[in-house]
Every structure is written in structure tokens, then in C-alpha cells.
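Q: How would the C-alpha cells look for this protein?
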Amino acid sequence: MKIEASLNDKAVLEELGERLAQTRLERNLSQERLATEAGVSKATIERLEAGEPVKSTSLIRVLRSLGRLEALDHLLPEPLPSPIERIRLQGRRRQRARSPRGGPREEKGPWRWGEGPTADRAG
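A: Here is the predicted structure in C-alpha cell form.
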């Protein structure tokens, strides 16, 4: 069954429980063994698989033991920064190039005192 907004809470919990039970069985784990690995009671595993509410920390421990904890990252991905925050993080970026001041410069070597257009007028 697909989990969607039209399902009530009980139906969602039951579907999650069935999926957890199937994942446990695919890994060939008993409820008791999973409970031991997750650090929860066997009754917690039974409640989870029956679609009954349990503490979120218990669910996290079970998911970690089943190697499925990373699935929570897909469930609720980290929010992206807002456009304003992205601009603030990037700093000021140049929007356009500008031409050098005074026009193109000829490469004649390093500049020395007494050279250039004003040197001719000084004498």
C-alpha cells in the first residue's frame, strides 16, 4: 500500500510496521535478535510491527540496526538555504567585467621614473 495523505494515522503506522517486519525478515532476523541489536525490548519490536505507537528513539534504534537509518534523510532532507541566504553565503560576485582604466597598456617592461608622456614636457 502506498503511504499518502488520505490515510489516517493508524493506517500509516500499520503500513510502516509491515515494512519494518518485511525488512527484518529479509535480513533473517528474529524479533528477539533485532530487539537485542537495537537495544530495545522485544515488546517494542512487536508494537512497531503491529502498527502501534512507540517512542521515536526506539524507531531510530531499530532503523539503525536494520541499516535503514539513512532513509530518514530522504524522508526529510535538510532544507536548502533561502535565495537571500545563498547570496549572503556567496559574498559579492562580479556581475560584469570592466575595461582597464586609461585604455590598453603596452607591455614595455617595468615603469621607471622619468618615463612616460609627462617626462617629455619636464625638460
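The chain has seven helices and no strands.

The CA atoms of residues 10 and 78 lie 27 Å apart.

Upvote if useful.
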